[in-house]
Amino acid sequence: MNVIHSAPYATPPEALGPQPYAELCVTSNFTFLTGASHPEELVTRAAELNLEAIAITDRNSLAGVVRAYSALKELKRTMEGELEQAISIRSQHLQDPSSRQVTSEPSSLSVSPRRPHGTAHDIRLPRLIVGARLVLRDSLVDWLALPMDRAAYERLSQLLTLGKRRASKGECHLDLEDVCLAGNGMILIALPPGEICQTVRTDIRKLHASHPGRVFLGAAPRYDGSDQAWFRFLSQVAHSLATPMVAVGDVLLHKPQRRALADVLTCLREGCRIDQIGTRALPNAERRLKSPQDMQRLYRNHPAAIRRTVEIATRCSFDLSELSYEYPDEAIEGEAPQDRLERLTRDGLTKRYPEGPSDKVLSLVDKELKLIRKLRFAAYFLTVHDIIRFARSQDILCQGRGSAANSIICYALGITDVGPETITMVSERFISEHRGEPPDIDVDFEHERREEVIQYIYEKYGRHRAGLCATVIHFRTRAAIREVGKVMGLSEDLTSALSGQIWGSSNKGPEETRMRELGLDPDNYRLKQTIERIREVIGFPRHLSQHVGGFVITQGRLDALCPIENAAMEDRTVIEWDKDDIDALGILKVDVLSLGMLTCIRKCFALIEANHGTRFTIANVPQEDKTTYDMLCKADAVGVFQVESRAQMNFLPRMRPRTFYDLVIEVAIVRPGPIQGGMVHPYINRRQGREAVEFPSEALRDVLGKTLGVPLFQEQAMQIAVVAAGFTPSEADQLRRSMATFRRMGTIHQLREKFIQGMLSRGYELAFAESCFGQIEGFGEYGFPESHAAAFAMLAYVSAYLKCHYPAEFACALLNAQPMGFYAPAQIVRDARDHQVEVRPICVNQSEWDNTLEWHGSGDMALRLGFRQIKGLREDDGLWIEAARGNGYPDPETLWLRTGLASAALERLAEADAFLGLGLSRRAALWQVKAIRSPSPLPLFNDPIDGEAIFEPQVVLPEMHLGQEVVEDYMATRLTLRAHPMELLRPHMPGLIRHEELLNAKLQRATVCGLVVTRQRPGTASGVIFLTLEDETGVSNVVVWPKMYERYRAAVLGARLLRVRGRIEREGIVVHLIAEYIEDCSHKLSLLGHPHDAALTQTTSKTDGVPAHMRPTPPPPRAYHPREQSKRLFPSRDFH
Amino acid sequence: MRNDFASVFPLKRSRAHEVVTGGAGFVFAAIVAGMTDRKTTGTPNLDKKLPVGSGPQGGGLAGTVVWCCENRKPTLNPEGLLPYCDPGRFLITRTQTHLDVLASAETALRSGAVPLVVAEVSERVGLTEGRRLQLAAEAGRSTAVLIVPDGGGSNAAETRWQCRAVMTEDGLENRVFNPLAVESFDSTHWRWSLIKNKTGTLSEWIVRWDAATRRVIVVSEIGG
Amino acid sequence: MQRRVVSLWFPRLAAERSLRVRPLSACEDVPFALSIFERNSERIYDLNPRGEVRGLDRGMTTVQARSLCPELVTRPADLKADQRFLSALARWATRYCPWVGTYERDGLFLDITGSDHLFGGEEALVEDMRERLSRSRLSPCIGLADTPGAAWALSHFAEGIAAPDRSLSAIAELPVAGLRLSQETCNSLKRLGIATIRDLHNLPRATLSRRYDREVLQRLDQALGNMSEQISPIKEDPLFAVRLTLPDPIGLLGDVMAGVGRLMTHLCERLDKHQKGARVLRLTFRKVDQDSESVDLKLARPMSDPKRLLTLFERAVEAVDAGYGIDMIRLEAVQVEAVSMRQMETVVASGSFPGQETTTDRLDDLITQLGSRVGLENILRFCPQDSHIPERSFSLVPAAYNRPAKSWPHHRPRPVRLFPPEPVTLPGRHQNNLNVQTDLKDQERRFAPPASFRWRGRLLSLALAQGPERIAPLWWDVDDSWGQGLRDYWQVDTRQGHRLWLFHTPQNPGWFVQGEFA
Fold first, then answer.
1. 3-state secondary structure of C92
2. Residue B219: how many CB atoms within 10 A of its CB?
3. B168 touches C: beta carbon within 8 Å
4. What average pLDDT does the segment A980-1004 reach?
5. pLDDT tens column, A122-148
6. Could you say which of A704, A947, C160, C254 would form a disulfide bridge with A1103 (CB–CB 3.0 to 4.6 Å)?
7. Range list for CATH 3.40.1170.60 in chain C
8. Alpha-carbon span C518 to C515, nearest angstrom
9. Chains that touch A (3 or more CB pairs under 8 A)
10. More confident residue, C496 or A105
């Protein structure tokens, strides 16, 4: 950096006092797999360093700017609100025990003169400059484009859109000519490559000619020992080109510690391992944000280059908040949106309340309409209404939810079906005046038909006005472990062990003890580094994908708002911002989402209408049906939306839901948020009357009355913050948001402090305050607002009602809507049979692709399994069988000739026993189709006179016995209608009791045995493992404490069939077996399929020439190890 | 009478020459090595692009350079050689003893398979050894450069050189960064002193290396 | 005479071989497994019975295995050694009969027709075999029958001896897998209820051939002796060694070289025939006093040119002390490498007929010659390495096994000599205050090169410095020499005429010289 001469040749710049500096070239991690810091981190660090301004300039992208913008806003809020704390946090940053690289860094040794203690008013936040680094196809020069005003911003956005629409997803094809045309109003800084050749000069001249006065030459340090010479050279070039030189940091990192991560990202980008990275690695950590002092020292011979950064920053006055955004007016035939909304609301109210709405309802409507008028959101509600109207007209099932859906207007417009009688409608949540944020309505549609709705929106508004939001795909724990592990040279089994068994679902990282269990050395340097890098990379953006259904619709052109790029799906375009960005800028969006349960319900409605003539909609399913609630109280909930999980099913009998609101609570309570917040037990104790319902204060009675004094919903958490901790409504909302978006920035601690202090000062107990806060923290990611819970509870109720009254239709619809939900087809079928639904096997002459219902002799419906249940059979093949069936197939050969199915597909059918209806056993059918080996029927041999096939010698194959049939059923369809394997094995395994006996057995030790259906180790349960074992009578819950797990680890992890002895624990109808002895019985499964294996040992003696005692026990031949066999057949769901 | 640089440099072929050790001595050897792969196209840029070891030169052989040294770990740095010659052409012969260095050098010279053999010797080279090397160089029509300790040469050598970087103000001025030439060393000045010459007079020159043309440029002649 | 075949199956060959070579130190009875990297994971390749009891299985990932069984001891599998071991076992088995063949990676076939009586009958032969093998800590499974197929089935599924002409009844009840059918075929047969060899045998042949590949019937026929199957005896690698025994001892160099020349011609012919070239040659002289002496010749590349080889040997032979005379000369190519036809053709195409040297030949010969003095591993080439770390930016590789580097990726300012860092001592503090860099702040001066310093006993003063170039250590690797952390490199010119490469370690202040520019 220095050429040191024996004589001084420049005035020490320090003599003039510190100069302000603006960093104009920063690559954030939204230049995917390149930048190594979040925009938020960069902005915060810029504030710490007292930079004048910071430009976020990602490669051909504006994707990260809104995050930086939000972060800055957040910092500002924090400082305005809690000045002292903000400063203390900042000094904490300085005192952070830094890595050896930090201590080595000169700047960290200096104390900035602009950061004296206690002079808080001196601290100004850096300004954010929005920009992009344009990397062109035809130029060696990269260009920083920094728009100075809104018009220029729009041109930049359109320029990027142009480049992105030309290229395939994720790419951007721009030429120098494009920049020449679009560059008006932008500061353009040339970043020359390492060598300046003639073409570089030509390019810069060209742009300078068309944009005089706005083109600069960026000088970035290289830290390779030649910086001063390089600057001197650049200043000569700048002089000759008449483009003033400006200092830029070309920043990749917010702090030096991120250098390692930057290298890992380089490896991911280049697809190499870290040991192969070579000089593609950063040689040092100098590409970090630097303080003005550091930059000044570096450019001490070119002070003007530093001064110029601030001049440029001043010229770039554009701020993202200027992006006023116009929503489509939705005016039709001269009727103003607000008038139309009011009219439609009135019409809707008459429909909802045939006897006329109550005064309370009317006043609420009035209040909401006033608010909408004031904030001018009427058009938005009309848009949602219109989309819903379209879906209804097409018979597409839909339901709205989200904060804004929690309103009487949405109820009246038919957007939601949960009325104000049921849930509290908090207008603060409906639309927050304070937040100035747009209303939020999500609409769920049937997952199979959502595309029709999307196409409708495109058609109505046009592609230039409507686009999907992006979803930023982040590194999740598993992917991070896998990919970083690969880069660091860990073998795949090691990384899969890290993600599967050690890391778990939490982000905290692996526990040392568990690593040691696997024989990994947690002190191993490489492994430590790997784990560090994994921790850092989790949450990094990876690429942009399309949001599931968040539509942004504008009155004018969408590409003036944000760059648009092509999505992976054909004919889809996506804007660069995700839904949080949209929210932060106050841009309206409509979420068009899909929900599998709606498909199931619609299919079920259709079956009911076809078979019984009853026409249901979600709104007209009979409410508060007693038998439905009775069913749920018994935890009879397989397939019921939201309450079918193991935890929910355990909770149902304790909760004993009797009304709709109970379901709302049920849906909300068994979630990580309330569980972590410790809210579940108090609630259930109070509900069961074992604990008095008390309120810490009268003020909280209003807030918590409905939930018996226990906060369960997001709204309640926010209201507590307002009522009990003295937050303003907007602060409360900030609190909620900071959980989700600002987790990594450390502001949460301040809020926690303020919250708890606020509650203590108002006379609440510390424990209560802390538990309240704990719950709010839990909400950060998993929280449910009441309206969401109500919307889901509605579907839970409807699906429960259907299951209760139309079990056959429900099971059939559920199977046809697969894959979805918690249970596999085997469990759904089994549950249906438990409810006296006859289930009929797959038959080539009866089945269709989908599962169907057939009339049963007694007038009930029987469920006929469809071809879709056969593993490996294509839908096309299934449909052909239906289509070519005619009067039925007499034999497999005919089926083959008519449908032309490939022999593999025929085998699939035979293996699934689908020819049974033709009088062919599975084996006989298989034998027959095995003979069909040509790829397609040959016309020559169609002639039945051709004798060869007919006169094949009769072959008698041994009958399959039940055990084999069961195994075959599982192999072909993953379910069986014959018998549960345990039923067949039970005679071989004395001393067991069946699951159903557990319910009434004495509370002592008992032994059960069953197929392992699930293994779970919830993060909330401190190492306890929950197993579910299925036998012919049901599914038993087994609890394995860590000590038992230590002892029987192999069995717990490896077995498919487990025998467990333990203590019975029972609460109501919930039974747990606390494991004390665990045995892997997987080998017993071989009894089902391969009886000859067992007979093998007897046959050996006949030919045995060797004395028995001399003979070592032969190991099982490799292919026939029983464990392998059972693994394939009875897969369990592990550790989800 | 002034001695003409061209009469002594490039070094006379089939002879043994000596240079006194030190960084500049190594550069001298590297420059000599660089001369051996020169195919005279007359265009320096084309010369640079010639594949390694192409074409006959010197003794009409591929331009491999055998570099003998005693150290277990040689100090020669290939990347540091780059401005002067192609390190890919070097065959490093690493030996246990001083004697092995001389013996290896002799074998290599005599084989005639390489145009240049450089030997780093740590001790005084005896007259007999010096003469054997000289004979081997003649037999193999190869050139020998011995890097010898200060005052450690042999009388049998054809020439002996002493090289040293020059710290003149002039030199400093010339150290201008040239981003087109990555080697920023082409303006370093050396004082090359011919301190023994069997067939002529002694002399001194200030020279510099011109990386673009790959030539030694005489800046000034000091005479001797 | 009825053919009789033994099938020897070593179900745990790899594990047992590894344990024979290096027994487990503590007690034998711990779970032990060999691992192999397969399908992107480290997996169990073979294991001992203790491991099997603990529920481990071949193909399982070692991580999974360890989670089931934390005390598992593993070693990497060595497939080549296993193969060599199986060949050794095959040679050992020739004690029972001449016809021994290996089968797949863990089995042997022995055609013992007519040789069992030497051991007192078949039972005794099998017993002897079992005993000897188990003494060697191997656990074989042995089957004896009329055909290799039947013997194989017995060894894998029901050890024992099938009486002559009773193959069918002996193996009828065994699973179809006993017929060496593919896994897929076995599964398919099983699902049809065709579980045993008898089931299969009972089916009409036409129905089978219509449904299955030829493999099924062929294997059945082989097992039952309806189709013959050869046991191919093991092939030894050709031995490249020749020997000359002399009627009268010789001692003159010319005589010895003449003898070596004759051997060389023979050896090279043999090498050419197998398209091999010698990489290492060993010449052994036996002297009349029964003493012997050998000389090795390591070559820069595989060669089979007798004339050149002879010349290269000359110097080494000169050094041999013939004593009272040499009565036997043996020449062996200890290490050979394949020489492709193409390579040989290029030699021809290059215009040189055999015996004439090309330029590269001469260079190779020089490498060989130098190598024979200082060791071939000491003739090295520079090879560029892609690294920021100066010490790691190149490597020295043996010239005999590496082509010259085509080009160098980086052109950074680097010194012509690079050596391990040598600390410099700074003169007294007050002298340091005479620092010439007056345009630097105090704080920065601490990181700028000292005005004067002592290196290799000489006091040097700074004339000019350029830098720093900051290089941080590789964060993913521990490199002790970089333990001090990052380095700021400076190019420093001293008034005394040295141009040095200095670096500073700011976090642990110190200055070091690591190289010399000129």
1. helix
2. 18
3. no
4. 86
5. 557 899 999 999 999 999 999 999 999
6. C160
7. 5-141
8. 9
9. B, C
10. C496
CATH topology of domain A824-973: DNA polymerase; domain 1 (1.10.150)
- Separation CA A1047–CA A1075 (nearest Å): 11
pLDDT digits (tens, 9 = 90+) for C3-31: 999 999 999 999 999 998 888 876 667 88
Mutate to test the interface with A, among B167, B172, B173, B177 (most CBs of A within 10 A): B177
Q: Do C70 and A519 touch (CB under 8 A)?
A: yes
Q: What is the CATH number of domain B13-41+52-221?
A: 3.40.50.300
Q: Pick the residue of A1, A2, A195 with the most B CBs within 10 A to test the interface with B by mutation.
A: A195
> Which tokens sit at A492?
């795949």
**A317 and A149 Cβ atoms separated by less than 8 Å:** yes
Q: Which chains touch C (3 or more CB pairs under 8 A)?
A: A, B
User: Rounded to whole angstroms, how far apart are CA atoms A653 and A136?
Assistant: 64
Closest by CA position to A790, among listed A243, A344, A361, A417: A417
The β-bridge partners of B204 are: B193
Contact assessment for residue A850 and residue A842, using Cβ atoms and an 8 Å cutoff: no
Q: What is the pLDDT of residue A770?
A: 84
Which amino acid belongs to residue C61? T
Task: Tell me how far apart the alpha carbons of residues A34 and A57 are, in angstroms, rounded to a whole number.
Answer: 12
Query: Residues of A numbered 684-713 whose beta carbons fall under 8 angstroms of chain C's beta carbons: which are they?
Result: none
Q: What are phi and psi of C74, to 5 degrees?
A: -125, 155
Where residue A618 falls (left for φ over 0; alpha for ψ -120 to 50; beta otherwise) is alpha
Is the Cβ pair B179, A232 closer than 8 Å? no
Mean pLDDT over residues C263-273, rounded?
Answer: 92
Say whether B90 sits in a helix, a strand or coil: strand
Q: Which helix (H) or strand (E) holds A427?
A: helix A427-430
Q: Delimit the domains of chain B by residue range.
A: 13-41+52-221
Name the CATH superfamily housing domain A13-321: Metal-dependent hydrolases (3.20.20.140)
Chain B contact set for C380 (CB, 8 A):
91-94
Residue A244 in tokens: 């003033």
In this complex, do A230 and B184 lie within 8 Å of one another by their Cβ atoms?
A: no
| Span A200-251, pLDDT tens digits | 999 999 999 999 999 999 999 999 888 888 898 899 999 999 999 999 999 9
Chain B CB contacts of C411 below 8 Å: 79, 82-83, 182-183
Assigned fold of C148-224: DNA polymerase; domain 1 (1.10.150)
| pLDDT tops 60 at residue B180 | no
The amino acid sitting at C104 is E
Phi, psi values for residue A656, rounded to 5°: 45, 70
Task: Return the exposure string of A397-409: e unless at least 16 CB atoms fall within 10 Å of the residue's CB, then b.
Answer: bbbbbbbbbbbbb
Interface of C with B in 462-491 (CB under 8 A): 463-464, 466
Q: Which two tokens stand for residue A340?
A: 């139309």
Q: Looking at the domain C5-141, which fold is it?
A: MutS, DNA mismatch repair protein, domain I (3.40.1170)
Q: How far apart are CA A528 and CA A640, in angstroms?
A: 45
Q: What are phi and psi of B192, to 5 degrees?
A: -100, 115
Q: How far apart are CA A156 and CA A576, in angstroms?
A: 13
The CATH number of C241-369, from 3.30.1490.100, 3.40.50.300, 3.90.226.10, 1.20.120.640, is 3.30.1490.100
| Closest approach of B142 to chain A, Cα-based (Å) | 38
Residue range(s) occupied by CATH 1.10.150 in chain C = 148-224
By CA distance, what is C56's nearest residue in A? A1050
| Torsion, CA A887, CA A891, CA A893, CA A895, rounded to 10 | 30
On whether the CB atoms of residues A457 and A549 are closer than 8 A, the answer is: no
B207 touches chain C (CB under 8 A): no
